[in-house]
Amino acid sequence: SAVISQKPSRDICQRGTSLTIQCQVDSQVTMMFWYRQQPGQSLTLIATANQGSEATYESGFVIDKFPISRPNLTFSTLTVSNMSPEDSSIYLCSVGETGGLLTEAFFGQGTRLTVV
Amino acid sequence: QKEVEQNSGPLSVPEGAIASLNCTYSDRGSQSFFWYRQYSGKSPELIMSIYSNGDKEDGRFTAQLNKASQYVSLLIRDSQPSDSATYLCAPQGGTGRRALTFGSGTRLQVQP
Question: Which phi and psi (to 5°) does residue B95 adopt?
Answer without folding.
Answer: 50, 35
